[in-house]
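Summary of Year 1 activities. Much of the first year was spent building the evaluation harness for sequence design. The harness presents a backbone, in tokenized form, and records the residue chosen at every position. We chose the following record to illustrate the format because it has been used consistently in internal testing since the harness was completed.
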């Protein structure tokens, strides 16, 4: 698998996206995109790609971040749901130009790198990528993202079950109550 060399004009984060890393391209920050297929280089910063991907899925990045903060109570380095199936977490403050975005569902394992502040991440495509984040911070980001995914999943399943069963239960209760009154 070749992960990065082809320069593309635009990129939308999708279920195949593994990670979006900032790279210096000339004197500008571009994005190196790792995915399950061939990777690429985008002329946009990782944060720009994340924001545009949120918009393409019906919301702003700020809205998704605000919702995640509400659900998991985290203020800094907030993970986000790009869509109901795609969850990303940042390795630093998203405003930091060196922030890397990791796709939660593609992380298979991680271990401490040679340097204390380096983590080697194994992804679902069997690729190992060194990420400049301590293993404990990386684990913390995984846990936050898992919490967000779990809470959103439960909320969606409760809303779905309520929409199917509550209306039927309400009809039955109404019918029972009407029989009691003459």
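For this record, the design step produced the sequence shown next.
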């Amino acid at each position: 698998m070749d992960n990065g060399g082809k320069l593309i004009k635009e990129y939308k984060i999708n279920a195949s996206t593994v990670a979006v890393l900032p790279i210096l391209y000339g004197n500008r920050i571009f994005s190196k995109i790792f995915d399950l297929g061939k990777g690429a280089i985008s002329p946009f910063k990782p944060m720009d790609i994340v924001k545009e991907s949120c918009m393409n899925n019906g919301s702003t990045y700020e809205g998704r971040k605000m919702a995640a903060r509400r659900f998991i109570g985290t203020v800094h380095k907030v993970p986000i749901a790009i869509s109901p199936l795609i969850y990303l977490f940042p390795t630093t403050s998203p405003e930091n130009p060196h922030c890397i975005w990791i796709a939660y569902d593609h992380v298979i394992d991680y271990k401490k790198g040679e340097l204390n502040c380096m983590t080697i991440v194994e992804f679902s495509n069997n690729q190992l990528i060194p990420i400049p984040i301590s293993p404990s911070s990386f684990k913390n980001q995984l846990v936050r993202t898992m919490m967000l995914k779990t809470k959103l999943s439960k909320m969606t399943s409760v809303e779905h079950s309520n929409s199917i069963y509550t209306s039927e239960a309400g009809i039955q209760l109404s019918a029972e109550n009407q029989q009691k009154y003459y």
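The chain has one domain: 3-180. Quantitative recovery figures across the full test set are reported in Table 2.
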